[in-house]
């Protein structure tokens, strides 16, 4: 009997409602995969959390999601079985599911949003899952599963911000401004330096500043000591401003981001970490700056493949938070991330 015909035990965490970590429940069952012609059975080894996951359990996520839901979008696993017409993978391969399952090339389209893992379809916080072969990519050869699990959302988002806009792709010697030490921001520093750019990073402590410098940041600003950090950062460029600003704070940081960007530069708006009720920049601010303000919705399969190529070519090592959690400790992992005292990606070891 083939692997795809055997009954397979599975454990998954499922979110019922929006009542915080208590809405997460560990469930166990078994199923027969019955793989389609182009489907792949993936044994998940590790997953990583994003701020989206924290927002979702408390009802603060602004996008639609199903209920109940297997949460989390980012994973790395081992291929256990493949359908009869699968050509991209074989059993034993290490693979990463893409964030938006139907977005294979170019920009993510509106129609693709319905296929975002851990949103409108079940995610990866489970032991095994079935994917179409087209929605998987090979894991970088220089990464283990914990490192690989950090790539599908945060790394792709950072790559898209810096290289995803035709005509505005980051080039050597250009200037990049990043904010904080979350997953997207750290990948942005690493990718920008790999591309030969100059990086100014902001953070809230000397310890985090040391990490940013270790990753290659040319200058670091403590935004808690300098509320005008955008204007201060601009001075490092000779007053001309930044070619790329990677903004993760939303309304709370966008004003300073726009004071830092150069004319015709790009401000990539990544998330909503800041208070959404705070007033943001005005239309006049955008007109006066003459910049591009671009919302980033992760990216497509070809972008994750570009990330894999870059990570391998430059031997980039994703930064993982000091504490790695077990599969049974999912609630603790969520609480740990919600405190926002960590640096790097919060990872859960599944197998």
TrEMBL record:
Domain Enoyl reductase (ER) intervals: 20-348
SMART domains referenced in this protein's UniProt entry, alphabetically: PKS_ER
Highest taxon of the lineage: Eukaryota
Cross-referenced InterPro entries: ADH-like_C, ADH-like_N, ER, GroES-like_sf, NAD(P)-bd_dom_sf, Zinc_ADH-like
GO MF: oxidoreductase activity
Pfam families the UniProt entry points to: ADH_N, ADH_zinc_N
Protein name: Enoyl reductase (ER) domain-containing protein
Organism: Kwoniella newhampshirensis
